[in-house]
Amino acid sequence: MQWIDNGQGLLRKNLSGEAEYLSFVPASLDSVIPIGLSEQTVRLLGACSRKLGELEGMLRFMPNAQMYLAMYVRKEALLSAQIEGTKCTFDDILNPENTELVQRDVADVVNYIKATEYAVERMNELPLCMRLLREVHTILLSGVRGSEKSPGELRSTQNWIGPGGSTLKNAAYIPPNIEDMNDSLRDLEKFINEADDVDPIIKASLVHYQFETIHPFLDGNGRLGRLLITLSLMNDHALSAAVFYPSYQLKLRRSEYYEHLMAVRENGEYAKWVGFFCDCLLTSAEDAVGSLERLVNLHNANTALINESLGRSATNGQRLLELLEGNPIVDVAFVVKKLDIARTTASNLVKDFVDLGILVQREKEKQRYRTFLYENYLGILRQGSDPL
Fold it and tell me: Which CATH number, 1.10.3660.10, 3.30.1490.100, 3.90.650.10, 1.10.10.10, labels domain 310-382?
């Protein structure tokens, strides 16, 4: 680590002799506020605030808003996991055939979804604090990679960041030692809940940086740190729900993302990090607005098509459309169970949806155990979700 003192923290000498190493101690976030932002970043910040407000406004008037939110949580979970190497696709996490979650990558994403839903609900009872984050971390790592690394427990040993095989001697970055880690976490928790005069987007960027820099767990820091972006924005009332996917641009610009985090640690480049963060957030929010508009248009078009085409079956058709907006990959048995209708009725309804072009059979040569996709809906949500 190439360190130049610019108020971003200090290097702490640990141990002695051959075992000696230097860990980084980040400066308290209170000490780096205010940050001198460039005019371009100020413009980005304003545009980002307006776009998040637009997202909030759209949600209030959308049909099936909760269904769309559930899909957005899934997309954010997938994108965040892909940053760390997960190779599964959006269809994989929605596939009803993956009920046992035998694929490790799918399980990683499903845990992120559960962790997000738990965190949002838990914030009604607890402030955004380390107790809450430890609980969320437990869910995040339950039964998946990292589950052997003390889920929910702060690390009690020194960790480091670097390529496979690296050691404390040649690590790219060494987070705070245990004592400094605990002090830094107390400062971070205080900043999250008491720095009310800091713009919520600037605050989310700094909270994310600080958490990743402290690296308080043995595994899962990246996933939890990216979830913390959404939770911080919700905590400061910039968002009322997990309405978009901040990991979208961080995934696409992964090398820049890591470089900017390191530049703060090495040179104190907070302003450039905030600028990069705002740029990523704005692009992700713009993408979310565009996706929501297309989803609403698709909903309205298919609602009209069902009413015009299905006659007496239109009521069940609208129920199936609502089901598909929460579960865009289905089979007939699933439709029977969820709509509580006869198998013949469900089979005919699915056939009608295929004839109308709403559903597409996944493997067209199959005559039994067929699965059907709400393809146009999935096409909107898949954008940007292919593995790296």
Answer: 1.10.10.10
Q: Which CATH architecture has domain 9-290?
A: Orthogonal Bundle (1.10)
Q: What is the pLDDT of residues 330-385, one digit of tens each?
A: 999 999 999 999 999 999 999 999 999 999 998 777 777 789 999 999 999 988 77
pLDDT at 97: 65
Backbone angles phi, psi at 23, to 5 degrees: -110, 155
100: which 2 tokens? Answer: 């046992």
Q: What is the pTM of this model?
A: 0.91
Please name which of 306, 347, 208, 201 lies closest in space to residue 264, comparing C-alpha atoms: 208
Q: Which of 221, 218, 198, 195 is nearest to 210 (CA)?
A: 221
Give me the residue label for tokens 């740029």.
279
Question: What residues form DSSP beta bridges with 11?
Answer: 24
Exposure class string for 76-90: b at 16+ Cβ within 10 A, else e:
bbbbbbbbbebebbb
Is residue 221 within 8 A of residue 146, CB to CB? The reply is no
Alpha-carbon gap, residue 26 to 45, rounded angstroms: 24
State the amino acid at position 14 in one-letter form. Answer: N
Element housing 298 (H / E)? helix 270-309
CA atoms within a 13 Å half-sphere pointing along the CA-CB vector of 320? 33
